[in-house]
Write a structure and sequence with these properties.
The protein is built from 46 helices and 26 strands. A six-stranded mixed sheet has the order 10-13-14-8-15-16, sandwiched between helices. It has a six-stranded mixed sheet with strand order 22-23-24-19-25-26. A four-stranded mixed sheet has the order 5-9-6-7, with helices on one face. Helix 7 runs antiparallel to helix 8, helix 7 runs parallel beside helix 10 and helix 28 packs parallel to helix 32 (about 910-950). It is elongated and about 125 Å long. The two termini are about 50 Å apart. Its main location: membrane.
Length: about 1350
């Protein structure tokens, strides 16, 4: 039982505010800052279930702290939950999965599910409680998401700090304690070999402990990040589900929040603790270097301290640049989303203009990306040059101050400062994570604090009155101006079309946003009392407030005055049908229990039986994305069937008959509304005025007010506005009777049954023959093929350009090592006398370098090496950024070109979400992540190779052993990389279902609430989130699993070099040994980092793989432009259309839909086209526009075969008004003229007359959803504006095509009848005559 708890918290500005928490048996089930009720549900009870006795908050954590846990008798589904401390920190729990990946038997079916401790359910509950506590402590205004983030990870942050301390200590322990002793032992070997070997083993142990500590930091952070990501995702989605309609946030903003802001918060938790590690490293390195070299070592620290602010500055600049870039990227992605309307784009031949717009946006985006990439590349260069530059500055200062410098002290200092490079590497991640999370936290807080609409709908106690509105004034905005002045004043202007009687404002002012706050309330002073079992008919002109009345009853608006009350359960049929991905039956049942008898009755009354007969799997046939394989009418009838099957008490029907023809509409009204729903309370909003006389009560809306109310006969007698509308309808209906023959009702019924008069046609008639329209996305297996690298290199400019960049990288990697080699050579020369140089190959002291006469020369070369490295790094950053930007842009443009030129069958079978994932997610990987991964991995590999070459001079055996060890490491990596690739690909492919679910939810919020499916959608979201987070955690864990083991194996090279020094097996100078020894300490971390980052770069290249996969799938349609083939000048002059034995099928595996079609449409003739579902009406338009190529025969227009023309020449000569209108995001002017081809005067002329200057015009159900007056107006515009054109009109309202010159009746892809309407009306047994008679009788 849900009850209200008054929960008052202080506001920082003073006063109190009620949180409005709904409590189910001590469970907080909702959160808002007004009052809101969230339904009781099992899930709420589950998440609020109290902890079992004896089980505390940290029980699972304490079990993990046990060093070694025996394998339990009943293991957990996730092996991580049974891991002890050693297994947890070393990721040994992942061993079985990595072995399974090695055997190529790892797939989504045998990967364990996410741990319950990491799941969205548990963590969202915890985050919600923390947020509520935060608000109760500090008030709404001062509540901080960042504080909540800290509290969420407080305990784990403490453990992370402890492990970071361990890493900082072990990082300097080897260089400061063990390295000098080993060098001293190598210089003066003693007989105590055990002591020397012990030093080597101790160094090996400390290096392994350092590797384990670093890995442990990442392990803790990545699991914390995944938990917080799951919590934020679910908490935000639950908050979103509280809204019944999105009036406070756009769909784009909501999607942006889930795609961008949540990841920013995740990065803040994942990378934020690295700031602590950086600080601890700075302290430990500063202390130890000062102990070795003295206070002068602070020079190096100062240098690093300069690097860190520089890194922080560059990172902040990067974040700012990325913010500007994301704005342009959003514009590009928004424009790319027009692929959802690709049919319209092809018909309007907008491919080239849209491609140009998108390419221009991409060009602008690339310039900003190059700026971001340059900053990222410079941070990478600083990372690699920081150790050598700080050493150059330090030792030049040291020598300049005439302080003594020995070989052991110099390279011990170098080794001590080595770990500081990691701090330079980690600083950008920490700064970027914290900076982005702060801005995301601000938006997140705003999202949390967004007030839900007040639940103004009262629950009435009297069941005899299901709906009561008293003096109700409602608006879509929270406040409305009391006085509305100027041209927008609704009270005065009534329904006068703007632009026809007033001065024309600038077209830029037509943006809805510009006028949104100046309009009055949508509903004013509404008084309505509805009795139980009443059918209320609601009519009025378009925009008069009919749909707003239903929204008001649903509680979606803001109540400004009066009251709204409802009794009983609701069912709702929206004007735009909402379809979920699944079968027809799943869409109708919506999770309800299947009752066969009731289900069959619902199918019959909603006229769905015939549609199910033509589907190969009946009601189990899958409906494609957004119902892509259904017509608008079929989607509407499925939506109606869903409402009827739900068996509610009050039905809100928003123009449910707009997309069906008269026969189907009459069947639904008779069988569904008057029979099945006869005891229900029904509010029917309709433009089909012929049904209003059968309603128990009628109200007429004008300008948001009820201007007439009563029963049909009363309103007719009043001779008011309603009577005028009915009179116009009768005048139109009698046209057919006056022109045609008189038939009895019995004859009409018999003919209607015999002919089965037309219903609406499938939008894509090809789609019904396949159950799975959209097949599961194919996932590649194994390592990336060479062709992926080849195509990426070619996109970047070719092998020559890439070779030049590689050469620059080799030089950049060489200079730091050269600086250290020069330092060793300089120190080896000592005082510069001959004796010291001769003794250089012995253990004797070479002398003081301050006494060397060539000291200035050594200093000059040492300093120039650092300066040249800086210049080379800047040069590399500039060139590398340009090439990477070129590569990603080339792939983007090539993909868009190929996709935009694909035939319609490609878009029918490929969900748009997958394509947008390529243009958004995959391109983001190529733009943001891949360049830095490639640059870092290549430089690290080169550094490893150079270090190997340096130590190989000590002894060829060291080179041999080093090569053997590293080769074994590479083989090990190649073996286990298979599992990493599987996890990465699964993570990438898990994004599409998650975001499709979010989009589906946003589009159907009102229906979800009405049918009580909030919890089902939340649970499905959590399930999809857990799947994605599981693959993310597995990918990161597997990468760390391999990296740790590689680093431990590479530490063997350090042990080998140390043993060679101890046993004196190398005859190189002592200074060279010290240099090599200091460098080899960096080998293990460099090698594992190069392999790990390289694997991440390869994982990012799977985005290229997916792009290439779609390019391969894109088989182009006929070319837009054919070289050498020109369209005849002035064609088509007359517009005569001839079909000659024309045959067409949508795809190779589908049957013929137009079969041997032969007919001629004369010049300037207006032809009306009717026919039943699947008859081929819309296929005629598809054939004319060559959206599908013919399977036989041909179409001639003015004697020219349309297949001999290019698609651009053909389609640009036609005009089309589609059944489903498409509005692009932007101004009205942008929608009328997206490419600025017309002047303002021409646009205003189009607004007045809807004028289209083309010879051939196709109109497909253009007036199905309009009221009768608007229909009459548009029919008049068609007759006037298209005079002199050949016009083809596909219509449901048969009365709208009575004025056509001829009528074409289609059936089974063939011509059934084709003649003048008056001839067909007099023809015995005419299908058209029967259809017209039924339509006329239903309207009269």
């Amino acid at each position: 039982m849900t009850r209200r708890r008054m929960y008052w918290v202080p506001r920082s500005s003073g006063g109190l505010v009620n949180l409005g928490l709904d409590v189910d048996d001590d469970m907080v089930s909702g959160l808002s800052y007004k009052t809101i009720t969230v339904e009781d549900s099992p899930w709420r009870q589950q998440v609020r279930e109290p902890e079992a006795p004896g089980r505390g908050k940290y029980d699972a954590a304490w079990k993990t702290m046990i060093p070694f846990r025996p394998k339990p008798k009943f293991p957990e589904p996730q092996p991580l939950d049974d891991a002890g401390l050693f297994s947890y920190l070393t990721l040994s729990w992942l061993n079985p999965l990595m072995v399974r990946g090695l055997r190529r038997s790892l797939d989504e079916d045998n990967i364990p599910q996410l741990s319950v401790h990491d799941a969205a359910d548990k963590n969202a509950k915890r985050l919600r409680l923390l947020w509520e506590e935060e608000v109760s402590r500090h008030g709404i205004d001062k509540a901080s998401v960042l504080r909540v983030m800290l509290r969420f990870q407080r305990t784990r942050l403490i453990f992370d700090t402890i492990v970071s301390c361990c890493f900082s200590i072990t990082s300097v322990l080897g260089p400061i304690l063990l390295m000098p002793k080993i060098l001293e032992y190598a210089k003066n070997p003693s007989r105590d070999v055990a002591y020397g070997v012990g030093l080597c083993l101790a160094l090996f142990f400390t290096e392994c402990l350092k590797s384990l500590s670093m890995c442990s930091c990442w392990v803790i952070n990545q699991r914390t990040g995944v938990r917080f990501r799951a919590a934020v995702f679910s908490f935000a989605f639950e908050k979103l589900m509280q809204f019944k309609s999105l009036t406070h946030i756009t769909v784009g903003e909501a999607i942006g929040f889930f795609t961008t802001d949540v990841n920013c918060l995740y990065e803040g938790v994942y990378y934020g603790p690295l700031a602590v590690l950086t600080f601890l490293l700075l302290i430990s390195c500063s202390i130890t270097s000062c102990l070795v070299l003295g206070p002068i070592a602070l020079i190096a620290m100062l240098c690093y301290l300069l690097f860190l602010p520089l890194q922080a500055f560059l990172t902040r600049k990067l974040v700012e640049s990325q913010k500007h870039t994301s704005e342009v990227s959003d514009q590009r992605i928004r424009m790319t989303s027009v692929l959802t309307s690709i049919k319209l784009i092809k018909m309007y031949t907008w491919e080239k203009p849209f491609t140009k717009v998108i390419k221009d946006l991409r060009k602008k985006e690339t310039k900003l990306l190059e700026k971001c990439g340059l900053i990222q590349s410079l941070t990478t260069v600083i990372l690699f040059l920081a150790p050598s530059l700080s050493a150059v500055l330090l030792f030049l200062t040291h020598v300049g101050l005439r302080l003594k410098l020995t070989i052991s002290v110099a390279f011990t200092t170098v080794a001590t400062l080595g770990p500081m490079r990691l701090s330079v590497f980690l600083t950008p991640f920490a700064v970027k994570g914290l900076t982005n999370s702060k801005s995301a936290a601000d938006r997140f807080k705003k999202f949390f604090l967004q007030e839900s609409p007040v639940i103004y709908v009262k629950e009435l106690e009297d069941p005899r009155k299901p709906v009561v509105l008293e003096e109700a004034t409602l608006s879509w905005r929270k406040t409305c101006p009391g006085i509305i002045n100027g041209a927008l004043e609704l009270e005065k202007n009534r329904y006068t079309p703007e632009g026809m009687t007033r001065a024309q404002p600038p077209l830029s002012g037509l943006e809805p946003e510009a006028q949104g706050d100046t309009r009055g309330p949508e509903l004013r002073k509404i008084n309505l009392v509805l009795s139980k079992g009443t059918m209320l008919g609601v009519c009025g002109n378009t925009g008069s407030g009919k749909s707003s009345l239903l929204s008001a009853i649903l509680g979606q608006m803001h109540l400004l005055e009066g009251s709204v009350g409802v009794h009983g359960s609701l069912a709702y049929v929206p004007q735009q049908a909402w379809i979920i991905k699944g079968s027809v039956r799943e869409n109708i049942l919506m999770g309800s229990q299947y009752d066969e008898a009731w289900y069959l009755q619902v199918l019959h009354c909603c006229s769905l039986n015939h549609d199910l007969e033509i589907l190969p799997f009946g009601d189990m046939t899958e409906i494609g994305e957004r119902g892509l394989n259904l017509s608008g009418g079929q989607k509407q009838r499925i939506s109606l069937a869903r409402a009827v099957y739900s068996d509610r008490e009050l039905y809100l029907l928003d123009d449910p008959l707009s997309a069906v023809d008269a026969h189907v509409g009459k069947h639904i009204f008779e069988e569904c509304f008057k029979k099945v729903l006869r005891r229900k309370t029904v509010i029917l909003v309709t433009h089909q005025l012929q049904y209003l006389e059968f309603c128990d009560q009628i109200i007429l809306f004008e300008d948001g007010k009820i201007c007439e109310k009563g029963i049909h006969s009363e309103l007719i007698q009043k001779r008011g506005r309603y009577a005028q509308l009915i009179q116009k309808m009768h005048e139109k209906a009698t046209q057919g009777v006056l022109q045609g023959v008189a038939k009895t009702e019995e004859d009409l019924q018999l003919e209607g049954q015999a002919q089965t008069a037309c219903q609406e046609e499938l939008l894509s008639e090809n789609a019904v023959l396949e159950n799975q329209l959209s097949q599961k996305e194919k996932m590649e297996e194994g390592s990336l093929k060479w062709t992926v690298y080849h195509h990426y290199i070619q996109a970047g400019g070719g092998y020559l350009i890439c070779s030049m960049i590689f050469l620059l990288m080799v030089m950049l990697a060489f200079f730091p090592v050269f600086s250290f080699w020069w330092l060793s050579y300089w120190l080896g020369q000592g005082s510069g006398n001959n004796s010291s140089q001769e003794s250089n190959w012995t253990t004797a002291d070479p002398g003081d370098i301050l006494d060397n006469p060539q000291l200035p020369f050594y200093q000059l070369v040492f300093g120039l090496s650092g300066l040249l490295a800086i210049l080379l790094g800047i040069c590399l950053s500039l060139v590398f950024t340009k090439v990477m930007g070129k590569a990603s842009t080339a792939l983007h443009n090539k993909l868009f070109n190929k996709v935009s030129h694909c035939p319609m069958c490609f878009f029918d079978t490929t969900p748009t979400g997958r394509l947008l994932n390529c243009f958004a997610g995959d391109m983001d990987e190529l733009d943001q992540f891949l360049p830095i991964m490639i640059e870092q991995s290549v430089l690290l590999v080169l550094a490893v190779i150079i270090i190997l070459l340096i130590i190989s001079f000590m002894s060829p055996y060291i080179l041999l052993m080093g090569v053997v060890i590293l080769s074994a490491c590479l083989i090990y990596f190649r073996m286990f990389k298979k599992a990493i690739n599987v996890f990465k690909r699964l993570k990438n492919y898990s994004c599409s279902p998650l975001f499709s679910h979010i989009l589906t939810t946003l589009q159907g919020l009102s229906s979800i609430h009405v049918y009580g499916k909030t919890e089902e959608f939340i649970n499905e979201f959590k399930k999809l989130t857990d799947v994605q987070n599981n693959y993310l955690l597995m990918f990161m864990s597997s990468t760390r699993w391999v990296a740790l083991r590689l680093e431990l194996m590479t530490n063997l090279v350090t042990l080998v070099v140390a043993l060679f020094l101890v046993f004196g097996l190398s005859s190189v100078p002592h200074s060279y040994k010290a240099m090599a020894f200091s460098l080899v300490l960096q080998l293990a971390s460099n090698f594992q980092a190069s392999v790990r980052i390289g694997s991440e770069a390869e994982a990012c290249l799977t985005a290229v793989e997916r792009i290439l996969q779609y390019m391969k799938m894109c088989v182009p349609e006929a070319p837009l432009h054919i070289e050498g083939a020109s369209c005849p000048r002035g064609w088509p002059q007359h517009g005569e259309i001839t079909f000659q034995d024309y045959q067409m099928k949508y795809r190779d595996n589908t049957p013929i839909v137009l079969n041997g079609l032969s007919l001629t449409i004369h010049s300037q003739e207006v032809v009306g086209i009717v026919g039943r579902t699947g008859s081929g009406k819309s296929s005629l338009g598809v054939a004319l526009f060559r959206l599908v190529e013919p399977a036989g025969g041909r179409i001639l227009i003015d004697g020219v075969d349309i297949c001999s023309l290019s698609l651009e020449d053909l389609r640009s000569k036609f005009s089309v008004i589609p059944q489903d209108p498409v509005l692009l995001s932007g101004t009205i002017r942008f929608n009328l003229d997206p490419f600025h081809r017309c002047t303002d005067e021409q646009i205003w002329d189009a607004l007045k007359r809807t004028f289209l200057n083309k010879t051939i015009v196709l109109i497909d159900e253009a007036t199905a959803s309009l009221d009768l007056e608007m229909d009459i107006l548009i029919q008049h515009v068609i007759r006037e504006s298209f005079r002199g054109c050949t016009v083809l009109i596909i219509a449901h309202r048969v009365t709208t095509i009575l004025n056509c010159d001829r009528i074409l009746v289609m059936g089974n892809g063939k011509v059934v009848e084709f003649d003048k309407p008056e001839v067909l009306q007099r023809k015995p047994g005419s299908t058209f005559a029967a259809l017209l008679a039924i339509a006329s009788s239903s309207m009269s």
